[in-house]
Amino acid sequence: MKPKVVSSVFCFLLVGLIAWGQVGNGTVTGTITDQAGAVVAAAKAEAKNAETGVVYPAASTATGNYTIADLPAGSYTLTVTMM
């Protein structure tokens, strides 16, 4: 293979990898605690997109942790309630 072709292929692969890493989605994680600072297990957490109204649900684990993954870019309201 000619050096020019090899460097062109390398550049295309590099650009492809960089573009693949630029995803418009994100993740929200946190720990739900009560007013005394104790973790709250099995609480319902939801992120509501302010523009579309789409709700993304989650629940806290036994250690109070929650994760809401694959959120499209935008503004959200996070609400937590006890189940």
Describe the structure.
By secondary structure, the protein is an alpha+beta fold. It is 22% helix and 41% strand. It has one helix at residues 3-20; strands spanning 25-31, 43-49, 55-59, 65-72, 76-82. The strands form two sheets. It has a three-stranded antiparallel β-sheet, with no helix packed on it. It has a two-stranded antiparallel ribbon with strand order 1-4. Strand 2 (43-49) and strand 3 form a beta hairpin. It starts with a helix and ends with a strand.
Jot down its keywords.
83 residues, alpha+beta, three-stranded antiparallel beta sheet, elongated, two-stranded antiparallel sheet, 5 strands
Average pLDDT number? 82
- Major sheet characteristics: 3 strands, antiparallel
**Radius of gyration of CA atoms, rounded to a whole number:** 21 Å
Helix content: 10-25%
In short:
By secondary structure, the protein is an alpha+beta fold. Helices cover 22% and strands 41% of the residues.
Topology at a glance:
Blueprint: H1 3-20, E1 25-31, E2 43-49, E3 55-59, E4 65-72, E5 76-82
Antiparallel strand pairs: 1-4, 2-3, 2-5
